[in-house]
Amino acid sequence: MTQVAILIGSISDKDVLEPCTKVLEDMGITYRFTVSSAHRTPERTENMIQELEQAGCQVFICAAGMAAHLAGAVAARTIRPVLGVPINASALNGWDALLSTVQMPPGYPVGTLALDKAGAKNAAWQAAQILALNDPDLARRILEARETMAADVAKAGQELES
Ligand code: RP5
């Protein structure tokens, strides 16, 4: 079963998604990571969405740069949550991708995260939180991870002050 799909617009985007796959793996979430371009392979994108939904995908994470329409193209074809990660892949430093991803028409939202690796990481956390609505064990793992993060801050504070 595939709980989460990660779609990138180009294979050149692959490394940016490494923090995303790590969080999903740490949380025990099954995912499929593949490439499909909104512009270069529109039919593949459309077919992929159907295939992924049939495989049980609950959340789509879509990452692209430049004219970053991948998340919007997916949101047009599914009512499952779509999270968008704009990638800095141009001379406009990612502003083009951010604005292309975030500005969706009413009824077709893309939950747009931060640029690049920061957004990729939080897309995984956001997907985990969505899945946790119906998965108490996953909810517990998320809370435990937060406790670890809080303990790390406290430990760093103690070390800084000592
Ligand atoms: C976007 O254009 C991709 O998501 C990538 O970020 C950027 C460059 O793609 P390539 O020319 O490297 O395939 O569509």
From TrEMBL:
It catalyses: 5-carboxyamino-1-(5-phospho-D-ribosyl)imidazole + H(+) = 5-amino-1-(5-phospho-D-ribosyl)imidazole-4-carboxylate. Residues 2-153 form the PurE domain. It is an enzyme of class 5 (isomerase). Its EC number is 5.4.99.18. GO terms for biological process: 'de novo' IMP biosynthetic process. Pathway: Purine metabolism; IMP biosynthesis via de novo pathway; 5-amino-1-(5-phospho-D-ribosyl)imidazole-4-carboxylate from 5-amino-1-(5-phospho-D-ribosyl)imidazole (N5-CAIR route): step 2/2. Catalyzes the conversion of N5-carboxyaminoimidazole ribonucleotide (N5-CAIR) to 4-carboxy-5-aminoimidazole ribonucleotide (CAIR). Belongs to the AIR carboxylase family. Class I subfamily. This is N5-carboxyaminoimidazole ribonucleotide mutase. The lineage of its organism: Bacteria, Pseudomonadati, Thermodesulfobacteriota, Desulfovibrionia, Desulfovibrionales.
